[in-house]
Every structure is written in structure tokens, then in C-alpha cells.
TrEMBL record:
UniProt cross-references to InterPro entries, sorted A to Z: YczE/YyaS-like
Domain of life: Bacteria
Keyword DNA-binding in record: no
UniProt keywords, alphabetically: Membrane, Transmembrane, Transmembrane helix
One Pfam family linked to the record: DUF6198
Residues annotated as transmembrane: 7-26, 46-71, 83-101, 107-128, 159-180, 186-208
Organism phylogeny: Bacteria, Bacillati, Bacillota, Clostridia, Eubacteriales
Annotated source species: Clostridium muellerianum
Protein's recorded name: YitT family protein
Length: 226
């Protein structure tokens, strides 16, 4: 039974990566800017002959190496499995870009709706990874490593980390194109909304879980009385 539970948890984790890939792709297609974590791969993909997903994979490897450098001997051995996260994540981002290839909204309201849907999918992916509780996504892992090393709050380090990626993306974009690509109001909206939507998912699933538990207990009591 324990073996099947572990397999299920890894399946949920992969499913979470899938929804994250779809969410990141959809926010990018909104035309209002992409997510902070995807801003750098998005800009680089417009300069070099590699896809957004391929740059996402390469960036995840960089994050993984930074984790090892920061934590050194304290790096958890089981987290070496993060090496397998990058290829899946990058593939799902590119898959999402292909699925939503025809999505190119011109009306601002539609762009905003596409962005919000992307945020919802991304938040669902994040929530599923938390529920799976097996491997840390390298993007989150590097933030956790830095926050642990510096004894700073994860949320504060996350803000600085995401902001740094956006600044680098902006600098590269300005230097290459003369204007800003990939970082817009949608980037800020994603940064604010995704965490809060994840909390909503958590509350909803907890509600149904508690309701299901109550129903099971009531059925058990009914059977015992009969």
C-alpha cells in the first residue's frame, strides 16, 4: 500500500508540473507579460534559437546547482531528484505554448481574462505539488535554500528572487530590443494572485475533504446501529 501511495504522490507532482506549464504558457499568451519565474526564459527565447521550455529547463539546472553551492553538505540527498523536474517542466511549458498557439487576444479585457485563467492553472499546479510533498521544484528549492542559509523568511526571499529575475529580463530586453518584453502589469498580477489562488484551492479541497470524512463517519455509525 505504501508503494502505491508513493507512486500516486509522484503522479500528483507530475500533474502539478503539467498545470504549471499550461498556466505559464497561457499567461505568456495573454500579451500582458508572463510570470516572474518565466520572464527570463521568455525573453531569452526571443533572442536565441531555443524554446521557452528549453530555457526553463536550463534555468532549473542553474537553480539546482545554486542550491548545492548554497547548502553544500546540508543539501538533502533525496532532492537530487530535482534533476528530473527540469525536463518535465520544460516539456510542459512548450506543450502549453503549442496548445495555446492560436490564443492571441487583441482586446484588453480578453487579455486580462486569459491572464487570470493562466494564474488559476498555475496556482492549481503549485497546490498539487504541495499536496504531493515529494520533490521541491528547483525554482522554489533555490529560494528555500537561500532563505535557510540567511535565516530569512521564505516569502521575503521569494519576492527579492522573483524581482531579480524580472530585472535581469528587463535589462536584457532593453539592451537587445530597445524596449521591455515579457514583463508588464500581468507579471505583477501573477506575483500577487497565484499565491492567493493557491490558498483558495487549499481551502476548497480541505472543505470537501472534511465533508467526505463526516459522510464516511456517519455511514459507519449508521451501519453499526443496524
Amino acid at each position: 500500500m505504501c508503494k502505491y501511495k508513493i507512486i500516486l504522490r509522484y503522479f500528483i507532482f507530475i500533474l502539478g508540473l503539467f498545470f504549471m506549464g499550461l498556466g505559464i504558457s497561457l499567461t505568456s499568451k495573454s500579451g500582458l507579460g508572463t510570470t516572474p519565474i518565466n520572464s527570463l526564459p521568455y525573453v531569452l527565447s526571443m533572442i536565441f534559437p531555443l524554446t521557452v521550455g528549453q530555457f526553463t529547463f536550463l534555468l532549473s539546472i542553474v537553480f539546482f546547482l545554486v542550491e548545492i553551492i548554497v547548502l553544500r553538505k546540508d543539501f538533502p540527498k533525496e532532492q537530487y531528484l530535482q534533476l528530473f523536474v527540469g525536463p518535465f517542466f520544460g516539456f510542459f511549458v512548450d506543450l502549453g505554448m503549442n496548445i495555446f498557439a492560436s490564443v492571441n487576444p487583441n482586446i484588453y479585457l480578453i487579455k486580462m481574462l486569459v491572464l487570470l485563467l493562466g494564474c488559476s492553472l498555475l496556482a492549481l499546479g503549485v497546490y498539487l505539488q504541495v499536496v504531493a510533498n515529494v520533490i521541491i521544484n528547483p525554482g522554489e528549492g533555490v529560494v528555500k535554500a537561500i532563505s535557510n542559509k540567511l535565516a530569512k523568511k521564505f516569502g521575503n526571499v521569494k519576492i527579492i528572487f522573483d524581482s531579480t529575475l524580472c530585472i535581469i529580463a528587463i535589462i536584457i530586453s532593453l539592451f537587445t530590443f530597445g524596449n521591455i518584453k515579457g514583463v508588464r502589469e500581468g507579471t505583477v498580477i501573477c506575483a500577487i494572485l497565484v499565491g492567493n489562488i493557491t490558498k483558495i484551492y487549499s481551502a476548497v479541497f480541505q472543505y470537501f475533504k472534511s465533508r467526505n470524512t463526516i459522510c464516511i463517519n456517519q455511514d459507519s455509525e449508521s451501519n453499526q446501529s443496524v
